[in-house]
Amino acid sequence: MSSGPATHGKGYGISDTKNYQDFTIKEFKLKTPEPSDVTLSIECCGVCGSDVHTITGGWGPLSDDWICPGHEIVGKVTHVGDAVTEFKVGQRVGVGAQVFACLKCDRCKNDNENYCPEQVDTYNSPYPDGVMAQGGYSTVIRANERFVFAIPDAIKSEDAAPMLCAGLTVFSPLVRNGTGPGKTVGIVGVGGLGHFAVQFAKALGAKVIVFSHSANKKDDSFKLGANEFVLTSDKEFEKPYFDKLDFILSAADAAKIPLKELLSMLKIGGKLVSVGLPDEPWSDMSPSLMNPNASCISSTHIGSKKEVNAMLKLAAEKGVKPILHDIIPMSKAAEAIESVKTNKVRYRYVLKQDLE
Amino acid sequence: MSSGPATHGKGYGISDTKNYQDFTIKEFKLKTPEPSDVTLSIECCGVCGSDVHTITGGWGPLSDDWICPGHEIVGKVTHVGDAVTEFKVGQRVGVGAQVFACLKCDRCKNDNENYCPEQVDTYNSPYPDGVMAQGGYSTVIRANERFVFAIPDAIKSEDAAPMLCAGLTVFSPLVRNGTGPGKTVGIVGVGGLGHFAVQFAKALGAKVIVFSHSANKKDDSFKLGANEFVLTSDKEFEKPYFDKLDFILSAADAAKIPLKELLSMLKIGGKLVSVGLPDEPWSDMSPSLMNPNASCISSTHIGSKKEVNAMLKLAAEKGVKPILHDIIPMSKAAEAIESVKTNKVRYRYVLKQDLE
C-alpha cells in the first residue's frame, strides 16, 4: 500500500499588492486528494507576466491573505490517486495555469476545458472545497490529471516550464486560427509570449511577420524564425501589408497598441487575437476600426490539454524552446518579478527549487 | 439614338454641421457618365442614422461646402451607358450606400466590393474624377451598374428603399456568420437596423432573441418575429443565456453597450458584430472581456451586390419589410432627421420626391 499524498506545501508568497516584492515563506494546505489527482514535487517554475499582474493588483485584489504565484511548473510525480491512468510515481510532468474544471460540461467534453465556467486557476483561486489553490513558487502541487502533462524527454525541465503558460497561450490561438503553410501571420510584441509565438507560427509552417515598437528586438526576431520585422514606430508601417495578413496574434501587454493600423493589414474577416491582457482597458476601441474589412478582435485563455500535448510534441520535433534570461533560485523570485515588471526580461526567468 | 444622360441634379442639402436642420435646395453636378453607368430619377429615399451622424459631424467634418445626404434610394432608370447589361430605361431600381469601387481588386472580384479600398460612398465622398457624390434627397443619381439593384415587383418602393442600407447592413453579417436553422442569434437594439435584423434572422431560419434596454420594444419585437425578448436593464439578464448564442448582431448605436454581459452569452469562439457605429469610442473595451470564451468583436460595412439580390429575393418571398414611421415629402427632411437623432423614429422615415 502506497503512503498517502502530501497534505501541505511550502512556498514563497506575498500578502500585499503594494509590497509585491516582499516574498515570505509559508506553509499552505493542499486541496483534498481525490482519485483522479496527481501530486508532484516541484523542480522549477517559470515567472510569467500573469504573476506580476496578479501580485501587483493590476487584475484586481488578492483572493486571500497570502498568495503563492507561479503556473509554469515542472516536477516529479510523488503520488497518484487510484483513478489516475496517465501517470506514474517518479514521472516528469508539468502543470500550467489551470488546475481544475468540472470535466462534465459541453466545453470540458469538447477540448475546451480551459473555458469551463467552473475552472480553478493554479493560484489566487479557490477550489470548490474552499482550499485556496497555491502556485509553483513552492515545493508541491496537486491537480486533476487532466491538468498534468507528460514532458517529452527531448525537452529540458527549464525549457518546458515556460511553455506551459506562455507557450500554450500563443499555441492555442495560432492553431485554432489555421496557422500553417500558405498563411501569413503577424506577431505583435516579442516578449515572454511573443518569442514563443514567432517560433510556433514558424514551426507550424506559416510566413511570420513580427511587429514591434523596439528596434532592439529585430535580431532576436530573425533568430526565432521571423520572415520579416516591422517597426511599428515607423510612419505608415502598415501600408505595405494592407490586405496581406491572415491572422494577427498580439502578445503586447499594453493598454495602447496601434489597433487601427494592425487591423487594416488583415484580409476580409481576419482576426486579431490579443493574449496580452493589460491592466487598463483599450481607450480607443471603436467598431469603426473593424468595419473597413470586417476584421475581428478576440482574446483567448491558455489552451486545452490536447493542445498542450500537440505543442510539446511539436516543440520536441522542431526544437522550439524559450530564450532564458536566467535560471535563479526560488528565493530570488522578487528579482525576476521586477525584471518582468520593468520589461527588462529577455525572455523568461525560471526559478529553481531551493526549499526543503 | 438616345438622348444624353442628365448632367446635373437638384437636392436638399446642408452646409454646416452645427445647423444640420437647415436644408437648402441646390443644383449639383453629376459624375462624368461612363459606359457602365446607370442614371435614375429618384422616387423616394429612406432616412438613415448615417445621414444624422454625417450631417451633424459625428463621424467627422463634411467633405464639401454643401452635402446632400440619403443612401436608401429607389427610382426609375432614365439612361444606361453602352456597356450596361443588367438594366433598361424605365426599370425600377435602387441604389444603396455605395456608388463606386475599382471592380478590379481581389476584394471586388470576390463579392467584397463593399470593402474595396477605392470605394466611394453615395454622398460626402469624392469620385476619382473629383466630382462630389451627392445622395438621394434629390432628383437624380448616377452609379456604376454594380451598385444598382433591381427591385422585385412584390416589394413597394417605400419598403425597398430602407432595405438598401439598413436591411443590407444587417443581412450581410447575418448571412456571413451562418445565421440559419439550428442557430440561435441575438439581436441587440431594435431600431431602423435592428427591426430588419430580427426579421431577416427569422426569415433565414434562426431562433431569434432580442436584447433591448427599452421595454416598449417588446411587442414590436415579437411582431417582427423574435422568439424571446430580454430587457438588458434587468440585473443578470445574461445569465440564462450563458453559452447559448451562436452569433450576436448589435445594431445599438451607443458608445456604451453591456459588452461583457453580451459576450458572455456566446458559445466558444462566437462573434458579436456591431453595425452600430457610435460617434464616440467604446470606453470599456478590454481583451479580458473576450478571453472567458474566445469570443470576438467585429463590425461590418453594408454588403455586396450578391447579398443585396439575395436579401431582396428573401424579402419578397417572406414578406420582410420595414415598419414605416411616416412617408413625408423630401422638403420635410429636417423633421425626419430630428426624429432619428432623438431616437423617436419607429422605425424608418421615407422621403418622397417633391422637386421639379
Primary descriptors:
homodimer, alpha/beta, 7-stranded mixed sheet, 6-stranded parallel sheet, 9 helices, 19 strands
Q: H/E element string of chain A?
A: EEEHEEEHEEEEEHHEHEHEEHEEHEHE
CATH topology of the largest domain in chain A: Quinone Oxidoreductase, Chain A, domain 1
CATH class membership of the largest domain in chain A: Alpha Beta
Q: Look at the helices and sheets of chain A and give the structural class.
A: alpha/beta
Shape verdict of chain A: globular
CATH superfamily of the largest domain in chain A: Medium-chain alcohol dehydrogenases, catalytic domain
Query: How many strand segments of chain A?
Result: 19
The CATH architecture of the largest domain in chain A can be given as Alpha-Beta Complex
**Structurally, how many domains make up the residues of chain A?**
2
Assembly state: homodimer
Describe the structure.
2 copies of one chain form a homodimer. The model of chain A has no long low-confidence stretch (mean pLDDT 96). In chain A, 20% of the residues lie in helices and 27% in strands. Chain A folds into 2 domains: 8-165 and 303-352, Alpha-Beta Complex (Quinone Oxidoreductase, Chain A, domain 1); 167-298, NAD(P)-binding Rossmann-like Domain (Rossmann fold, 3-Layer(aba) Sandwich), CATH 3.40.50.720. With 356 residues, the first copy, chain A, is α/β, with parallel strands linked by helices. In chain A, the strands form 5 sheets. In chain A, strands 3, 4, 5, 10, 11, 18 and 19 form a 7-stranded mixed sheet that branches. In chain A, strands 14-13-12-15-16-17 form a 6-stranded parallel sheet. In chain A, β15 (245-250), α7 and β16 form a beta-alpha-beta unit. Chain A is globular. Chain A is built from 9 helices and 19 strands. β17 (296-298) of chain A pairs antiparallel with β17 of chain B, so a sheet runs across the interface. Chains A, B: One of its GO terms (molecular function) is oxidoreductase activity, acting on the CH-OH group of donors, NAD or NADP as acceptor.
